[in-house]
Amino acid sequence: MLITPFPSRRRLSLFLMCATLLGAPACLRAEDALPGVTTATPAQEGSTPAAQGEIDEGTVGKRGRITPFNGAALPEDEIPKLQPPEDAGKADAKKRAPSSGVNVLDRMGAELPALPQEKAFAGKADDAYGAFQRGYYLTALELALPRAQLGDAAAQTLVAEIFSQGLGVARNTKDAAFWYGQAANAGDPGAMFKYALLLMEGRDVPRDKKRSEELMKKAADLGNSSAQFNYGQLLVADMPGERGLKAALPYYEKSAEQGIADAQYALSQIYLNVDGIDDNKRARAREWLLRAARAGFDTAQLDLAIWLVDGIGGDRNLDEGFKWMRRAAEGGNVVAQNKLSHLYVNAIGTRPDPVEAAKWYVLSRRAGLKDPALEDFYLGLTEAQQKAALSAANKHRSS
């Protein structure tokens, strides 16, 4: 099993989370259709495909319209959920209201606290790293290599990075592996993490799973954020189920605090779905999911949209749910494209738009995601609407 460094997406993290969080909202099956959807088809009583495609903006608005082509509306609490009931699991029973803390507007005009006094830098400037940061890679190598040969761990890591990425020199992964190994043995956490990956994969060095895990844990304990997340993944892989998730939780938390989106996503799932989690932590599940979504993690954006629409981990917010679903869909997430089509069909968080609904359905169908309900909806559109949707889908794909 390959452990990949951040910022790799939808690889080991998604696989492990879906394999272990059997009731988690994140592990939606792509083939699940939106329950409770009433789609417009030619067979509806007293209607025709052309009539179904007409939208009366005077009677059909956004938020909770179930059949947007006949103007009917259900009460707010009867809006269909994006997540099938059988997948909700324990999540529905553990909804938490959002924090009622002071917001930005409340703080406007308030005097800001004084900035902490800067500590004077008493160390010696690293000329090699300075040259590297300015893009003078050959100069950085010339300055770092003599120090690396004398056993300087930071210089060894810098030399390894230059060879690994081919910065100013020909890329040489074997030389990079050698210097990562030297720096790891000398105690550099970043090098430990990189060398642990090489040992795990058996790339340019003999494969050594035991040594890899030892280095990954050591780097994690020394504060390397990527190592913290990956070591958490190793624990989950070695101990499937809640036991592994709880063992990995401290490492996920440290990694998430340092900004690793994969870890932030993992926290949101564990906090909401695992038994025995402190209520204060459980109440923060949506907050961590929001952080991962803002970092550009498309799976987190999809889940956040579902949580907002379905009221998971906090109150419902259909408008925000629609925005996040569209963002994930525009980023290429196929499940989000499918769900976005349902939101347009049912006017959830937006006004009904048959052409946009069909466009996103076509894109998800081309990617291999079948949906009989949306297919019926699509076939019920007029020929002109179908052509417009195909054109829009083609333009989106080529943009």
UniProtKB/TrEMBL annotation:
<feature type="signal peptide">
    <location>
        <begin position="1"/>
        <end position="30"/>
    </location>
</feature>
<dbReference type="InterPro" id="IPR050767">
    <property type="entry name" value="Sel1_AlgK"/>
</dbReference>
<keyword id="KW-0732">Signal</keyword>
<feature type="region of interest" description="Disordered">
    <location>
        <begin position="38"/>
        <end position="100"/>
    </location>
</feature>
<dbReference type="InterPro" id="IPR011990">
    <property type="entry name" value="TPR-like_helical_dom_sf"/>
</dbReference>
<feature type="compositionally biased region" description="Polar residues">
    <location>
        <begin position="38"/>
        <end position="50"/>
    </location>
</feature>
<dbReference type="InterPro" id="IPR006597">
    <property type="entry name" value="Sel1-like"/>
</dbReference>
<protein>
    <recommendedName>
        <fullName>Sel1 repeat family protein</fullName>
    </recommendedName>
</protein>
<dbReference type="Pfam" id="PF08238">
    <property type="entry name" value="Sel1"/>
</dbReference>
